[in-house]
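worker-3 :: picked MFS family permease
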Amino acid sequence: MAIVWTSFPVAWLGFAGAAFAGFGYALVYPGFGMEAVARAPAASRGLAMGVYTAFFDLSLGVLSPMLGLVAHATGIGAIFLITALLGLFAVPIGVRLLASHHHQSERKPS
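worker-3 :: tokens ->
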């Protein structure tokens, strides 16, 4: 999203930023969903995926209109900066999950 935010008036850079955002969304949603399911007990995996999806949908349903209000007040460019910053919040979560997964695989006997 930072690429889209800085791309004005270069159209191809905006398209590249949108493509990167789409690829990231396509990888992050199922990746975090797999982690949610893998960490749940076998009997509760369907519930874990349902809760993950519900909160994901809730975040889209709440933040999208809020970003619309921000765009109305400050201009559309601000929402790309905000979403880039919000996307950075997923990095420490992913690093923690990756470290936890790596730590668990070291404990398993071969």
